[in-house]
Write a sequence for this structure.
């Protein structure tokens, strides 16, 4: 079963489109939801949670229509908002138990699950302190606990590492990575691309209310199609020239005197090694070019504009 499906989904604010005839089928796993401000990410999440009704089209989440079966969606889906959403006089345990009740858990189960997920999130005796007194890191942990207290199959996490120091960020990302182990798929909406690289297997990119890309992160980060990054201990220019005679045209990396890029079909990789051996040159590495997510995203957006 897909995580969610979108069919010609459309929504506008005062005539300004936030979602424009969106179609997608997103599979289980860990998905990075990316896009500039105003791309429609928040509107998409609100629609999938049943909080916003589309102007046209339809959506399903885990096979459920969020507009017609909102209570069932709350049982199947968890949500960690970017902003705080609780009564500050509640302690951490009470806030998480309350979220469990809102998600449909019976009173006794909500108490038990609240303690379990607070242990999982690393909040010990602090669970009995008012959340208004918590540090940023503790508040983020409570929000994560609220999102998963009812054992959802899918969790939307909106900027979960926002405001965290490096250590707190590492711990939060470790918790998010572990959610897959316990059977919870994740949609991570964030502007911190490093977080997506660390925990996500897929990327869903939105621009101006449209989905511009959905697929594996590894494929999105590939460089130019068929281009390999080659490192040579010495003699880069001689090797590039010799490869040109074989119909393989390389270009030097301006930032590293030992690197160059060359477009290769996989079956022609042995030609590269043969030419290097003939010249008596030592190759340091030969690998398909992989871009950072930031570079890949900038290239994609530049090409789409």
């Amino acid at each position: 079963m897909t995580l969610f499906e979108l069919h010609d989904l459309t929504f506008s604010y005062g005539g300004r489109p936030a979602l424009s005839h969106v179609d997608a089928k997103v599979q289980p796993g860990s998905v990075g939801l990316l896009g500039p401000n105003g791309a429609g990410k928040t509107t998409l999440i609100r629609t999938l949670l049943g909080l916003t009704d589309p102007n046209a089209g339809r959506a399903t989440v885990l096979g459920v229509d969020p507009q017609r079966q909102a209570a069932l969606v709350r049982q199947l889906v968890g949500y960690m908002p970017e902003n705080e959403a609780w009564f500050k006089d509640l302690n951490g345990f009470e806030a998480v138990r309350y979220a469990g009740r809102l998600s449909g858990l019976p009173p006794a189960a909500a108490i038990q699950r609240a303690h379990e997920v607070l242990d999982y999130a690393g909040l010990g005796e602090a669970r009995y302190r008012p959340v208004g007194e918590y540090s940023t890191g503790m508040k983020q942990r409570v929000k994560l606990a609220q999102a998963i207290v009812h054992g959802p199959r899918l969790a939307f996490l909106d900027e979960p590492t926002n405001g965290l120091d490096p250590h707190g960020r590492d711990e939060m990302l470790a918790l998010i990575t572990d959610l897959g182990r316990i059977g919870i798929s994740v949609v991570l909406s964030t502007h911190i691309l490093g977080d997506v690289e660390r925990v996500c297997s897929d990327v869903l990119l939105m621009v101006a209310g449209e989905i511009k890309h959905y697929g594996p992160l590894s494929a999105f980060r590939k460089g130019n199609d068929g281009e390999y990054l080659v490192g040579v201990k010495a003699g880069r220019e001689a090797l590039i020239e010799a490869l040109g005679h074989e119909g393989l045209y390389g270009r030097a990396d301006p930032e590293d005197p030992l690197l160059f890029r060359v477009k290769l079909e996989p079956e022609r990789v042995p030609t590269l090694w043969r030419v290097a051996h003939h010249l008596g040159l030592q190759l340091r590495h030969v690998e398909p070019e992989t871009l950072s997510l930031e570079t890949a995203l900038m290239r994609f957006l530049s090409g789409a504009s």
About this structure: The chain has two domains: 4-220, 227-289. The first strand starts at residue 4 and ends at 13. The chain has a mean pLDDT of 91.
